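call fold(seq) -> tokens
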Amino acid sequence: MSDNPAIAQIKEDVTTNDVVLFMKGTPMFPQCGFSASVVQILSQLGVKFKGVNVLENDGIRQGIKDFTQWPTVPQLYVKAEFVGGADIIREMAMNGELEDLLKEKEVAVA
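ret:
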């Protein structure tokens, strides 16, 4: 699967950025409610992150699902580790686990 340029791009994104959100739309203009909710959570925490719009590239859109064996978008990565989708991120944010994870991984939060 390493021949796949989309997988190579995904690997590069998650290893060269502390926090990456594969999402529908952009952080400024999310194009689904689930993506919007994760953007809002990260923004409230003051986390800088790279948003990757899967709607712009079908290879990335399918590639991210293959990369993690996770069927849905959005997908959040922190320090190259897959954290989860919207429901998991929302739950982690509500119980403080997301902020703890970010601090543990030495990602700046506001």
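The chain has one domain: 5-104.
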